[in-house]
């Protein structure tokens, strides 16, 4: 998703995102349905994922992404997950009314019958690659709907038909929620927090990779970076060093290295580019 989606997601009072609670029988699979009401004014928007795989249903706009300089079209229904590095939306798009389905990773892979390492090979791809039986009918019906209520019924029915019985360690969802609430954590912190259930490193490593598709270290890394990015984007009085330390980095150089890893450029270059793009859009609107 565009990284600003998560900025609005973190703001519970944001007018840019409408959250729709999934029906009871889908809560084990779907964390939430979101209607993304914020536009995408930048020519190139950094893509990111916070550890929850998503399926995005655009309003008939095909999305092209740049992955390490190579352009790829992922259509108007696409999947995003895993650890995204230096991936950008290639052209200016409007994300208004884009429906985002945010999944629990521990059940996402089972729901679509795919391997847990699929996001190690591709982080953004066309939904048709994993949707399975009934996708063409689902897509045609979805895009013929004239209201959000109708589209939601189509999505819920499609996901409900894919529900099946499978098992997974329920504590994994609790661990994910604990990480999201606490923010700055290490693997050692997790092990200490779950002493009562005798959580050990080998179990954590094995089950994160098996059910979430990434290691616990990678999950903590993307959460830490996202929190620091949102803090930096908020334009507070904090300097870069303070933001880095507040979000679990040793120093600002450590944060800058991570920023380069995820965006391809240092923070100053990234935000200068973003400010310039926003100014261009405002100037165009005033003409």
Automatic annotation (TrEMBL):
One of its GO terms (molecular function) is DNA-binding transcription factor activity. PANTHER family: HTH-TYPE TRANSCRIPTIONAL ACTIVATOR RHAS, HTH-TYPE TRANSCRIPTIONAL ACTIVATOR RHAS-RELATED. Keywords: DNA-binding, Transcription, Transcription regulation. It comes from the Bacteria. Pfam families: HTH_18 (PF12833). InterPro entries: AraC_XylS_family_regulators, Homeodomain-like_sf, HTH_AraC. Coiled coil: none annotated. SMART domains: HTH_ARAC. Residues 169-273 form the HTH araC/xylS-type domain. It comes from Mucilaginibacter pineti. This is AraC-type DNA-binding protein. PROSITE patterns: HTH_ARAC_FAMILY_2 (PS01124). Transmembrane segments: none annotated.
